[in-house]
Specification:
547 residues, alpha/beta, Nucleotidyltransferase, domain 5, Hypothetical protein af1432, 3 domains, 19 helices, elongated
Length: 547
C-alpha cells in the first residue's frame, strides 16, 4: 500500500525536506468535479486526506448536435473550480494538481475550455488519456488497499468511461478504458421514466458489447490458476454499496472501504431500479443528490462487467483517480522511491514500447537522443531555461522522431506527428504528448509556423516556445548522425554571448573520418537554430583528444 509504511515504499529521497506538505488534487469528471486535499508525510511516505469537495456539474451533458460543452455548464464548472481553489488556499495547499478526463477529451471545445480555466483562474489542467486515467486509478487504489502481490481486477465506472485494470501490486498488467459511463449511457440510451423494457434490453446488450474487448484483454493476462478479487471504485459503485449496506445492515458503515456485496445483490438492485421513476430512485435512503438520474445505467455497466468477468462479488475501495493523481505527484517529485512505478521509468518504458511497435531503429534513435540531450544540457541557462520535464519531452521526441517511416518515407515527419499524437504514451498528459508529437514533426523540413494546424493545437505560448526551441536542437542532433553509423562520438558547445557566436566542436569516432556528410547536414540545418536563438553557429571538426 502506498499510504502505509511497507517494504515497497518505505524509503524517501534524501534530498526531500522531511516535513509535511499539503497538496490538492482535482478530478474534472464527466459527472462531477472532485477535489481531495491531503497532508503528505514524506518520512513514511504516506498521505492523509484532510478535506474533500464535490460539485455535480455534468460536463458530459453536452450539446446533442455539436458535442460541445454547454456555455452554462462551463460557467458552473469555473465557479466550482474557483471555490475549490479558495478551499485549497484556506487549507494552505502548496499546489493544486488538476486533471480532466472523458468529457474534455471528446468535446470539440474541450481544450478551449481548459485554456479559459487557465486564463481566468490561473489553474493548469492536465488532459489525460483513457489509459493514463486507468494507470492513475490503479495507483490510487494501491494507496488504499493491500493486494499482497495477488491479482486484482479494478473497475471504475465514471460518467463518460469505464476503466478496467488488472494488477497485482506491481506494475499493472492491463489498462483499459471504454466509452461507457453512467452519464453518457443515460443521455444517449434512456428516454423513458421509468425505463421501457425495450430500452433496458438494448442498454444491457450495448454495454455488454462495448465491454467485451476490455474484459477479453484483462482475462487474457491472467495466469493459469489465478482467481482475482474484483475491486470497485467511484460514484456508481460507492452508491450501490451505500444503499445496499443501509438496507442490509440498517446503517452505513463509517467507511465503505473494503465493503463487499454480491452479484446477486446487484442484480436485485438493477431489477428494482429499472422499475422506479427518477423521483422514486431519488427517495431511496442514502441516494446522493442527482445520482438517481444516472444510477441505473451505471449499475447495468457493473452488472454486465461482473458477468463477463465471471466474478460473483465486488469489494469497494474509497480511493481512485484523484488519490492516484496525488501518488503520481509524489512519485514524480521523489517522495516515493520505487523503481517499478517512478514517473521517468513509466515514461521511458511507454516510449520504448511505441518505438518497438513502429519498428524504430533504437540504436540510431539512442544516438540522436544522446546528442539532443547533450545540446540541451550544454545550452541550458545560456540559450534556454527549460527544466527536467522539457528534457524528458525532448528525449521522447528524439527516440520517436523517425517512427513515421512505419507508414512511408515520404513526409515521414508528418506521419511521426500523427502516430505519436494518437499513441497511448503513459505518464504523459495530452499537452505533453502534443509537444512530443510537434517536436518530432519539426525535426526536418520547415520550422514551426502558426498556419500549421498541429502547431496551433498548442494553445499556450510557452508550449509553442518549447517546440520552437527544442525542435531546433533536435534538428542538429539528427544532423550529427546523418549517416546513422555513429560517426561522431562527442560534441562540445561554446557560447560567446558578446559576439552572438555558438561554436560546436565535433569529435569523430575514428580520427581519420572527415565526417563530411555530417558537417554538410549541420550547415544545411543550422539556419533554424540560428534564427531561433539569434546566434551564429560555427562547427569545428576536432581531431585531438576528446573532452
Amino acid at each position: 500500500m502506498l499510504n502505509l509504511v511497507s517494504a515497497d515504499y518505505s524509503s524517501v529521497n534524501t534530498q526531500v525536506v522531511k516535513q509535511n506538505r499539503i497538496i490538492a488534487a482535482i478530478d474534472m469528471g464527466t459527472n462531477s468535479l472532485h477535489m481531495v486535499i491531503v497532508r503528505i508525510d514524506p518520512n513514511l511516505p504516506a498521505f492523509t486526506i484532510i478535506a474533500k469537495e464535490k460539485e455535480t456539474v455534468r460536463l458530459g451533458d453536452r450539446d446533442i448536435t455539436t458535442g460541445e460543452l454547454k456555455p452554462e455548464i462551463m460557467t458552473k464548472a469555473i465557479a466550482a473550480l474557483g471555490r475549490f481553489q479558495e478551499v485549497a488556499k484556506t487549507a494552505n495547499a502548496e499546489t493544486i494538481i488538476a486533471v480532466a478526463t472523458s468529457a474534455m477529451r471528446e468535446a470539440p471545445n474541450g481544450k478551449d475550455f481548459l485554456h479559459r480555466v487557465e486564463s481566468e483562474l490561473g489553474l493548469s489542467v492536465d488532459l489525460i488519456s483513457g489509459q493514463e486515467e486507468a494507470r492513475r486509478i490503479y495507483l490510487g487504489v494501491l494507496s488504499g488497499m493491500e493486494f499482497h502481490n495477488k491479482p486484482h481486477i479494478i473497475i471504475d465506472i465514471g460518467g463518460g468511461s469505464t476503466e478496467i485494470i488488472l494488477g497485482d501490486s506491481q506494475e499493472p498488467r492491463t489498462l483499459t478504458s471504454t466509452k461507457v459511463g453512467a452519464v453518457r449511457l443515460t443521455t444517449e440510451l434512456i428516454s423513458s421514466d421509468p425505463i421501457l423494457d425495450v430500452e433496458f434490453q438494448y442498454l444491457q446488450a450495448y454495454v455488454r458489447g462495448m465491454l467485451e474487448r476490455s474484459v477479453d484483454e484483462v482475462l487474457a493476462n491472467l495466469k493459469f490458476g489465478e482467481f482475482p478479487r474484483l475491486v470497485g471504485t467511484s460514484g456508481t459503485i460507492e452508491t450501490i454499496a451505500m444503499i445496499q449496506a443501509r438496507e442490509k445492515l440498517g446503517n452505513v458503515p463509517s467507511t465503505l472501504n473494503g465493503y463487499q456485496f454480491s452479484l446477486r445483490d446487484l442484480e436485485d438492485w438493477v431489477n428494482r431500479l429499472r422499475k422506479m421513476t427518477n423521483a422514486e430512485r431519488a427517495a431511496i435512503p442514502g441516494m446522493p443528490e442527482r445520482r438517481s438520474e444516472v444510477i441505473l445505467a451505471g449499475a447495468v455497466v457493473l452488472q454486465e462487467a461482473m458477468m463477463l468477468l465471471g466474478v460473483d462479488s465486488i469489494t469497494t475501495c474509497g480511493r481512485a483517480l484523484r488519490e492516484g493523481v496525488i501518488v503520481d505527484w509524489m512519485l514524480s517529485h521523489g517522495l516515493i522511491e520505487d523503481k517499478l512505478r517512478f514517473q521517468s521509468s513509466v515514461r521511458e518504458r511507454s516510449v520504448l514500447k511505441q518505438a518497438n511497435k513502429y519498428q524504430v531503429n533504437l540504436t540510431y534513435s539512442d544516438r540522436v537522443a544522446a546528442f539532443a540531450l547533450s545540446l540541451f544540457d550544454q545550452t541550458q541557462g545560456q540559450l534556454h531555461h527549460w527544466g527536467i520535464n522539457e528534457r524528458q519531452l525532448l528525449w521522447a521526441a528524439a527516440i520517436l522522431h523517425n517512427c513515421g517511416h512505419h507508414i512511408s518515407h515520404s513526409a515521414h515527419h508528418k506521419h511521426s506527428y500523427y502516430l505519436i499524437r494518437n499513441s497511448e504514451l503513459l505518464g504523459y498528459n495530452e499537452t505533453e504528448i502534443e509537444i512530443i508529437a510537434n517536436l518530432a514533426r519539426y525535426h526536418r523540413k520547415s520550422p514551426p509556423k502558426k498556419r500549421h494546424e498541429n502547431y496551433r493545437n498548442l494553445l499556450n505560448k510557452q508550449h509553442r516556445q518549447v517546440v520552437s526551441q527544442l525542435s531546433a536542437l533536435l534538428r542538429l542532433a539528427v544532423a550529427l548522425d546523418r549517416r546513422q553509423i555513429g560517426a561522431i562520438a562527442q560534441i562540445k558547445c561554446d557560447y560567446y554571448p558578446q559576439f552572438q557566436k555558438f561554436n560546436l566542436l565535433i569529435y569523430p569516432t575514428h580520427p581519420n573520418d572527415e565526417c563530411a556528410l555530417e558537417l554538410w547536414s549541420l550547415d544545411f540545418k543550422k539556419a533554424v537554430f540560428e534564427a531561433e536563438f539569434g546566434v551564429k553557429l560555427v562547427t569545428h571538426l576536432e581531431k585531438g583528444v576528446r573532452v
